[in-house]
Amino acid sequence: MSRRAQENIVAVALLFFFGGVIWLCQDFGPRARMIPLPLAIFGVVLTVIQIAWQNLRSTDELHLDLFSTAGRSPVLDEESATTRTRESAARSPAWLREAGAFGIVGLLIALIFVTGIIPAVFLFTGGYFLLTRHYSMRASLAYTAIFTSAIYLLFVVALQIQPYHGMLAPLVERFS
Amino acid sequence: MLEAIGAGLAALLTPQAILFMFIGVVYGLVIGILPGLGGVVAMALLLPFTYGFEKAATLALLLGAHIATIWGDSVTSILFSVPGSAKGLALCFDGYPMTKQGQAKRALAASATGALLGGLIGAVFLALCIPLIRPVILALGPSEYLMMALWGLTVIATFSEGSLMKGLIASLLGVLVAFVGMDVVTATPRFTFGAEFLMDGISFPVAMIGLFAVSEMMKLAIRGTPIVDRSLVTEVSTVWQGVKDAFQHWWLVMRSSLLGLWIGVLPGVGASVAGLAAYAQAVQTSKTPERFGKGAVEGVIAPDATMGANEGGGLMPTLAFGIPGGESMAILLVAFISLGVVPGPEMLTKHLDLVFSMVWIIVIANVAVTVIGLGITPWLARLPTLHANLMVPIVLSVCFVGAYATRGHIEDVLVAAVFGVAGYLMDKYRYSRANFVIGMVLAVMIERNLHISLTLYGRDFLLQRPIALAMLVFVIVTAALPFVRSWRRNRRALAA
After folding, report:
1. Which end is more exposed in chain A, N or C (fewer Cβ atoms within 10 Å of the end residue's Cβ)?
2. Phi and psi of B182, rounded to 5°?
3. Of A92, A125, A143, which marks where a domain is finished?
4. Which residue, A92, A109, A140, sits at the end of a domain?
5. Contacts A124 to B, Cβ<8 Å
6. A51 at the B interface (CB within 8 A)?
7. ipTM topping 0.85
8. Lowest pLDDT segment from A102-116, B32-46, B157-171, B361-375
9. Residue A85 pLDDT > 50, yes or no?
10. In terms of residue numbers, what domain contains A14?
11. CA distances for A102 relative to A92, B202, B214, B375, angstroms
């Protein structure tokens, strides 16, 4: 997908966000919406201008906008364009890596909700070390155990924060 | 008065007070480094353990821990762009770029020295100003607070990364996100979609963990290399260089410290606003504002000096009127009561020695934190060179545990993840994350004070509050200044 298309998707999503705020504000009293409503309308105006602007410019200038064209040096523009080209060439399967990063966050969240915080930290850290093969299996397990113990001692024992036990906890209790 | 100064110091020279001070400082450093936990949490957790000890020792433990969290917060902001708490945010803007440029030692040392100098200036002014500050505090009302918050917004242009339009959109997003939850003025739940946990609003530290820490770890996972790859970037700085930087920018330190002291004096403004305001004034008064956000050492010194002095400022209204300058001072107030000390005018007569004990605690704790900090800086500076495969799982885990620990709500973990993804996308498409956070920090302050001003003085409140009007003129001038400078520079460049 082209950079312009991606920028347009983001801008349209923002437009929906601001539009949603305006719609939700209708349910509030005059004082409660006194600040959010005008700001959301201002947001819509700015986003519409941004969409128009980014579709009228060349692809190389997509990171610029109406205000910034006046104050930006052409040398900097060239440098950043070259850097961008070099970076994108070096990271050819970028979408795959990005999907992986989103997946990592999603997986950790899922583990926390299902197994609870401390087991999730153990499973996630250990799994990550093993899958990336950065360390040997023994070292991975040792580092994971040390790290999880440190988290437990610090947050649960020292700071006395009651950990979340996860959705599986009632099941475990029933069968134990 | 000299007698009280001596008695204040003598009370801290007992073995119990020295031990408590040391424990407080080390504990505060550790808590400060943990994401989501700051000075308030540090003091709140210590409070139950303080009953039955000497007054000075108890205060040394609490204040020592609180002061140490300031630098603890700065460490992770500088090294990983992971703010330990809200007040460490401003350190991410230039501290993290310095780390990436191989100047972590310099940034950490400048930060520690800046905080020390700020703390010392704050302590001296606290000692001198307590009797004088009362009329000044009483002269300011919600309209003036509103103007101060608006002044904080003027920094938006600095963080817009070449796209002011996107920068403005990002700050509007931040402002609107801050309105999630129960509106304190009208008692209307806004944008909560019936979710109970959203009634309290989006937790600011949780949002920051997501926007900065989680998104940075996502970037690191994508890149697959360390934050600082030693084969490409060598550590070019020294600890001594950072110490020298703080002294060389003595005028910036002085200005930032006075600003921190001033913000500390104002009840309810908070250290996170102080850090951002310090950064704003550093940018606006710099002859080369374009260096900020790319690794300017002044961008590290100013917020730390401000936050160091902020503690002294926060103590003033707490001691003199029993009005806490912030959340941490409210906890200190509870400690006062448990110690049988009643804050108010009597503090300046009956308990003057205790007041000076606190001034000494600020001085000694700051010195201790700086000595420890400078000592461990060479080791800390090596952390960003750890491989991404080690950093990503560890930092992500700590971030989500920290997000949960902030309020004990499991939903906050989800909020941190959502903000993490949003932060990643904002960074990719150049919608400034810093502007988002600035909008979020200042939104509630702006709305609350605008409502109160309108209620108290009507629609023409500015005409009735000449100080606020003068402040508005100042806001307009400082907002226009970067554009005027940029225009002049371009004109000069064109002429050349």
Report:
1. C
2. -75, 125
3. A92
4. A92
5. 393, 396-397
6. no
7. no
8. B32-46
9. no
10. 3-92
11. 18, 22, 10, 38
